[in-house]
Amino acid sequence: MDRIPILRMGHFLLVTIQIDLYDRLATNLESDLVQMVNKTGARGVLIDISALSIVDSFMGRILGNIGSMSKIMDAETVVVGMQPAVAITLIELGLELKGVHTALNVERGMQLLKERIGSDDEDESEADEDSFE
Amino acid sequence: MMKMNQKLMKIVLNKDSMRIEKEQDVVPFRNRVKENAVKIGMGVVNQTKLITAASELVRNMLKYAGGGLVLIEAITEGRDSGIRLTFQDKGPGIKDISLAMKDGFSSGKSLGIGLPGTRRLVNEFDIKSIFGEGTTVSIIKWKNG
Amino acid sequence: MKSDIIKGLQKKKNQILEDWITIQVADAGLREDLMSNDELREQSSELLDALLKAINDKNIINIESPDFEQVHEILAGLSISRARQGFSPRETGIFVYSLKEALLKNLDIDQTEDVKTTVETIFKINRLLDNLSVVTFETYIKGREEVILRQTDEITEISTPVIRVWEGILALPIIGTLDSARTQVVMENLLQEIVESGSTIAILDISGVPAVDSLVAQHLIKTVAATRLMGAECIISGIRPEIAQTVVHLGIDLSNIVTKATLANALKYAFALLKLDVRKIQNKVSQ
Question: Is the domain of C96 the same as that of C208?
Answer without folding.
Answer: no
